[in-house]
From TrEMBL:
Top-level taxon in the UniProt lineage: Bacteria
InterPro entries according to UniProt: HD_domain
Domain HD: 70-152
Protein's name according to its UniProt entry: HDIG domain-containing protein
Length: 216
């Protein structure tokens, strides 16, 4: 018998039976495809199509940020695999807490982390489900900050405190002046924000079970 997620909505787990519209959200051209492992998890959960589209949008931006960081800060230790998988699964808990697709809430953070761990995803990759909204916490590293930034800038949201935190980390790692790093980060954020309308349109083209979501 299918399991129904908290917050109502359609069944969330039909292993091996992803809906056609979910498959389309995962494969439609226009944004980078998710890592295969992440896509399989979403299919196994028969995740809401709009969640899959949102994760693709954030993952696409994260890939741009990883490329930028590697080019501009070659001495910085960035775990690209972790950042990309983290961006691709950061909101996976919303497949369980479906009400948080269309309204506020943070229950999806712990739930998503637990789901990933239960399915054998190592902590190095699973942690972003619980850290993506906690960028101000002590000990948050550059990989977590990049995922948090991608989760904001995909829709042209500029979070000044987050950007300043990342500037501090980048400046410390590169030895560059903070103002130089800030200007460089500001430029890439402006460039990525310019594509927000396209990404928002991609996300909004896919439905949320039980209602219409906001920008996730």
């Amino acid at each position: 018998m299918p399991w129904r997620g908290k917050g109502g909505g359609r069944s969330r787990y039909r292993a091996g039976m992803p809906s056609p519209i979910l498959r389309r959200a995962l494969t439609e051209p226009g944004l980078r495809p998710l890592p295969e492992r992440a896509a399989r998890l979403l299919e196994d959960l028969d995740a809401p199509p709009r969640l899959a589209a949102h994760l693709r949008a954030v993952h696409d931006v994260a890939a741009e940020l990883v490329g930028w960081a590697r080019e501009r800060h070659p001495g910085l230790a960035v775990d690209a695999e972790a950042v990309l998988f983290g961006a691709a699964t950061h909101d996976i808990g919303k497949a369980l807490h479906t009400a948080e697709l269309s309204g506020p809430g943070a229950e999806h953070e712990r739930a998503g982390h637990a789901l990933l761990r239960e399915r054998g995803v190592e902590e190095r990759l699973a942690r972003f489900a619980r850290t993506h909204a906690s960028w101000a916490d002590p000990g948050v590293g550059v990989d977590d900050l990049l995922v948090s930034l991608a989760d904001a800038i995909w829709k042209a949201e500029r979070v000044i405190g987050l950007e300043r935190r990342l500037v501090e980390v980048l400046a410390a790692a590169s030895g560059q002046e903070g103002w130089q790093v800030f200007m460089d980060l500001d430029d890439v954020c402006d460039r990525l924000a310019a594509g927000a309308d396209r990404r928002l349109a991609f996300q909004s083209a896919y439905p949320v079970a039980g209602g219409t979501a906001s920008t996730a």
